Amino acid sequence: MRLIRATLLPLAAMAAVAVTACSNSESGTPEVDAGPNGSARSSTMTVPSADDEPGAGISLSELDPCSLLSQADVTQFGPVKEPQQKQIGTADTCSWEPDRSEISGERGTLGVNIRDNAGVQNMNDKGMGVEHTTENGRDYGRSPSPNGCTIAIGVTDTSRVDVLVSGADPNKACKMANTLVEVVEPKVPQG
């Protein structure tokens, strides 16, 4: 009997570690992991965890895309020009172009798009696949492209808010978009 107990105890400890390692409480945002050949594809994504109901009491139609990011949020990547709000197709958009008069180099244009007629499942493949995940009842999607990255935050099955970075390497763009999603996500209604 003693031999069985000594054999089972390490197995039970390993099983407990394996179960806790698969917990769904990891916080963060979707990130692209460059594979061995440097491509911007990944099979895993993590998303922000929410302690309370994100965007509670707000409707999507009440959101101003330019209000979802502050000046400090967008200038953490370098100086930007004043935000430009436009209606592009059916999306309300806001974009911040880099101010290259002060600093040169690769810095992408940042953007937030509010789409009230297309959910996360309707994201377009920009050439490098679309990855989907669900965390805390919210759907997310990520679509890297050769010159940028878009991360969608699901609101309903037919609406979403996109955070995007264009004009940058996809790995860098997705990291920048991830950082911005952490700021935007709590302000976006869910449901």
TrEMBL record:
<dbReference type="Pfam" id="PF12079">
    <property type="entry name" value="DUF3558"/>
</dbReference>
<feature type="region of interest" description="Disordered">
    <location>
        <begin position="24"/>
        <end position="61"/>
    </location>
</feature>
<feature type="region of interest" description="Disordered">
    <location>
        <begin position="77"/>
        <end position="102"/>
    </location>
</feature>
<protein>
    <submittedName>
        <fullName>DUF3558 family protein</fullName>
    </submittedName>
</protein>
<keyword id="KW-0732">Signal</keyword>
<dbReference type="InterPro" id="IPR024520">
    <property type="entry name" value="DUF3558"/>
</dbReference>
<feature type="signal peptide">
    <location>
        <begin position="1"/>
        <end position="21"/>
    </location>
</feature>
